Amino acid sequence: MHFLDARTVIFLNILTDALCVAILFLLWRQNRRRFKGLDFWIGDFLFQTFGLLLIALREGIPLGVSVLGSNLFVMSGAVLGYLGLRRFLDLPVRVGFHSGLLAAFLCLQAVFLYVMPSLANRNLVFSAVLLIVCVQSAHLLLVEVHAGMRRITRGTGILFLGFCLFSLFRIAIILLFSGTDQNFFHSDAGNLIIIITYQLLLILLAIEMALMVNRRLLADLHVQEEKFSLLFQASPGAVVVTSMADGRILQVNDAFGQISGYTAEELLGRTTVELGLWEKQEERQAIVSRLARHEGIRGEETHFRRKNGEILIGLFSSEVIWLRGEPQLIS
């Protein structure tokens, strides 16, 4: 008695693929303006889903449509995923090799369906071509990408190595233990376990792709923070960042300390009111009211008080910015 049913396995695989498509669609929607290639990843999993649907419909549609269509969709999805990775990494995309690979793949599938019918040979061709695409993907993410990106792509690259091992294992099983060909829906438990393993790897791939995007977002954010810090400190004018919620000083540049007469330690964590930096409170109230309405301040003459009591007249500018999800003022 079979403890696994092929139709149930395919149905569950279609559901999980559809879930992966939804996850990648949300990822694309949030990051489509930042990164290229995410739409190719959606195409990858959509094609995987269409391929499974054609397998599920096998007994109700022409055999050639089901077999050739499902294999072509699944393998085209794998190629789209690889091309999407290249776009994500801002590397050139060339489709000539993969167009030829897919054409050869489809021809061999047709030969082993119509001329020399053999499910084992079709599976062998599928695993061999999948191995080629996965080796390319692993090489791209672990070797070809520049050193600074490898910590971002390493996890996904290792997962593609898992796909490579899976394909090699399946090729070995086919060559060593292939018996008589059989209908897909009468596959033995071993073949169904292979299908489930492939699907689990696909689910892990969708999760790892999402994590890879998040790692790149964090890396890009770190770079932007470093650029901001350099520009912030290099500014010849006095610059201060304050919390919009309570007015406490979060960051000052060296010029602010020199002009105000305070050290950074004396300024950080305190408010401008506590320090008495405003010489005229009515000026402060007018500016705070305008900033609360998210109106920018540009070069307005304002009176300030230094630590030693000296009054300074300067041009004041301020904008509301969002840092770490909170509104802050840069002035």
What's this entry about, in short?
By secondary structure, the protein is an alpha+beta fold.
Keywords, separated by commas or semicolons:
67% helix, Beta-Lactamase, 2 domains, 5-stranded antiparallel beta sheet, 331 residues, alpha+beta
H/E series, N to C?
HHHHHHHEEHHHHEEE
Q: How many alpha or pi helices?
A: 11
Strand content: 5-15%
Category by helix and strand content: alpha+beta
**Low-pLDDT residue intervals, each spanning 5 or more residues:** none
Average pLDDT figure: 85
The total number of structural domains is 2
Percentage of residues assigned to helices = 55-70%
By DSSP, the count of extended strands is 5
Could you walk me through the main structural features you see in this protein, from its secondary elements to its overall organization?
With 331 residues, the protein is an alpha+beta fold. The protein folds into 2 domains: 6-227; 235-330, PAS domain (Beta-Lactamase). It is built from 11 helices and 5 strands; from the N terminus they run H-H-H-H-H-H-H-E-E-H-H-H-H-E-E-E. It has helices spanning 6-31, 38-56, 63-88, 96-115, 119-144, 147-177, 189-234, 254-260, 264-267, 272-275, 281-292, and strands spanning 240-243, 249-252, 297-305, 311-323, 326-330. Strands 2-1-5-4-3 form a 5-stranded antiparallel β-sheet, with helices on one face. It starts with 5 loop residues before the first helix and ends with a strand. The mean pLDDT is 85.
